[in-house]
Every structure is written in structure tokens, then in C-alpha cells.
């Protein structure tokens, strides 16, 4: 059976289009390997079918490994933006400005919380600068905290 270079190009494009229906970001790398094999086969048309399959398999593994090693870790959102209240509850921060009279206090987190590292808060207990507090609830744009022992 003779497999022409453009067969691999079409196969690669179909795999990449399949990513639209199965958003796992896995088919994309198999498709990219098929496109690469199509380019290789264009310049080396006498490559046997088993060699083609080995090249496609190795290419798929290499692209997938590169994805997990180098690209995916940079795409992790550490801000927790858009995450529900349950993800915020239990986070611990340091009071940088205690609440006074009608003014709310300000708490700072080591990692940004919902996209910001400082938040206004109201507390159920008296807080001082440097106290560690734990988020117990969210009220509008204000965190509700309690002092953490």
C-alpha cells in the first residue's frame, strides 16, 4: 500500500480539527506529528509504511512530552480568578491594615487571591497589623475573616 505525503497532511488536519470536538489538547499533538510526517514524506517519498508509523508514533510522543514538560506548566492560572467562593474559603493572609471604626481592613496574601494579592476585609474579632487571618466567607467584594491562632 502506498501512502502519499498528503494523506498524512489530511490525517493531521483531521486530528487537529478533532480537537474542536474533544478538547483534551492531546489530538493536536498527534495531528502535528502527522503534519510533520507529511512534510518528511514529501522529501522522502520512499519511506516504508512501518517507518512512517514509527516516525508518527515517535513524533506524537515527543510533542506530547514537550507539551507536558514545557508548555503546560506555564499555562497554570495561579491567581484563582473566576474560582468559586469555596476555593477562597480557608486561605490565609496577613493583616496589613486593621479595620477601624467604619473603615475596612486590608489583608495581603502570598499568592494572588481572585486576581489580587490585597483585599479589604471585615473581621469578627479584633485584628492587629501582622495577625494571620483565615477567610471564612465572601460578602460582595469584601472578605470575611477570622484571626488564625
From TrEMBL:
It holds the Pfam family NfeD. It comes from the Bacteria. It is found in: Membrane. Keywords: Membrane, Transmembrane, Transmembrane helix. The chain crosses the membrane at residues 6-22, 27-45, 51-71. Residues 86-147 form the NfeD-like C-terminal domain. It is a multi-pass membrane protein. This is Membrane protein. It comes from Desulfofustis limnaeus.
Amino acid at each position: 500500500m502506498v501512502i502519499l505525503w498528503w494523506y498524512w497532511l489530511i490525517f493531521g488536519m483531521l486530528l487537529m480539527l478533532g480537537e474542536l470536538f474533544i478538547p483534551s489538547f492531546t489530538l493536536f499533538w498527534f495531528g502535528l506529528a502527522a503534519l510533520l510526517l507529511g512534510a518528511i514524506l514529501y522529501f522522502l517519498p520512499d519511506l516504508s509504511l512501518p517507518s512512517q508509523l514509527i516516525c508518527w508514533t515517535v513524533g506524537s510522543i515527543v510533542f506530547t512530552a514537550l507539551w507536558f514538560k514545557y508548555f503546560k506548566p506555564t499555562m497554570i492560572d495561579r491567581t484563582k480568578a473566576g474560582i468559586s467562593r469555596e476555593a477562597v474559603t480557608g486561605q490565609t493572609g496577613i493583616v496589613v491594615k486593621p479595620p477601624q471604626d467604619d473603615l475596612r481592613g486590608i489583608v495581603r496574601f502570598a499568592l494572588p487571591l481572585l486576581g489580587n494579592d490585597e483585599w479589604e476585609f471585615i473581621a469578627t474579632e479584633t485584628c492587629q497589623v501582622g495577625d494571620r487571618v483565615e477567610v471564612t466567607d465572601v460578602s460582595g467584594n469584601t472578605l470575611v475573616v477570622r484571626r488564625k491562632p
